[in-house]
Amino acid sequence: MRTVAVVGTGLIGTSAALALTRRGLTVHLEDADPDAARTAASLGAGVTEPAEGPVDLAIVAVPPALVGKVLADCQRRGLARCYTDVASVKAGPRAEVAALGLDTAHYIGGHPMAGRERSGPLAARADLFEGRPWVLTPTPDTDTETLNAALELVALCGAMPIVMDAAAHDRAVALVSHAPQLLSSLVAARLENADETAIRLSGQGVRDVTRIAASSPGMWVDILSANAGVVADILEEVAVDLGETVTALRALQASDEGERRAGAAGIEAVMRRGNTGQSRIPGKHGAPPTRYETVTVVLGDQPGELGRLFGEVGALGVNIEDVTIEHSTGQQVGHVQLAVAAGVVKPLVTGLRERGWAVRD
Question: Where along the sequence do coiled-coil regions lie (predicted)?
């Protein structure tokens, strides 16, 4: 594959274009908003000049509701030999493509499981897809050339291909992406009119839960509109759990000891279910989850401090598996939580303290 057209230069389209240009491909950029395409081009994502003939692959990077319309226009123009899209919902666009009578032999649905809270070309990154799953949803009439082109695209972007049925994909993303987005927004919405004193007590827990609540509402309305029924089903199940949890919490305040025990058992049960579910999330490089120990280092708010810390951890021969930074409200310090293998905790703590770092017990 040497030439690609990216139609839609938002976060995903521009990130794919950046990854491809980095690998030496010629990328032609299109967008309904010419300024967005020019912005993407200025970032090094490609050129805005049309291709002289059909490109090897066209990536339709538009909201789910527009995939059919945009694909029809691309095929009418003979833009490419093969086509794919990157919409986060697959069954609806596939049905529309079939209803429009489009060429489905040279089209394959796709969805890279990557994103950010920010949107638009300026939020794009060439490494956005590295190590992330990229779902492909071929139909029985998808030809081998098209599947191979999509697989090559995934490889060039550093992602991991996963072939799925479109409906199964939509059920899966409703559970692991769409419902969590709404739940994060619901928790964050409780903070809208909260007392400032409460807000100042915000720690890493609420930051983790509400991080994706900063996402674009308009973008998510487009996504959820295409998968609303499945997401609603999941939230109904969550609502049942919430109702039972509320009942258990009320029971903890009861005067009857039996009720209090029942309430405690209810809370423990839902938290144990949560432990089990969380433990199933794949760990590093998609491997089974590994339990690491956490070493917390107090970090001053000076330029280069984080890099110096990482350098000294590396000099001690320790690999950092994950990192979280928690900022202290009203203070010029933060707490860096380093996830490391259990066997290296003691020498790491000793080594850092010898080098002058404040390590929390």
Answer: none
Query: Cβ contacts of residue 54 below 8 Å, gap of 6+?
Result: 78, 79, 80, 81
pTM beyond 0.85, yes or no: no
Cα 298 from Cα 125, distance rounded (Å): 30
Q: Domains (ranges, CATH) in the chain?
A: 3-164 (3.40.50.720), 172-279 (1.10.3660.10), 293-360 (3.30.70.260)
CA–CA gap between residue 32 and residue 45 (Å, rounded) = 17
Closest C-alpha among 240, 15, 224 to residue 124: 15
pLDDT 10s digits, 305-330: 888 899 999 999 999 888 887 765 55
- The span from the CA of 220 to the CA of 2, in Å, is 33
Q: How far from each other are the two terminal CA atoms of the chain, in whole angstroms?
A: 54
Q: From residue 25, how far is each of 121, 205, 209, 254 by CA, in Å?
A: 19, 42, 39, 67
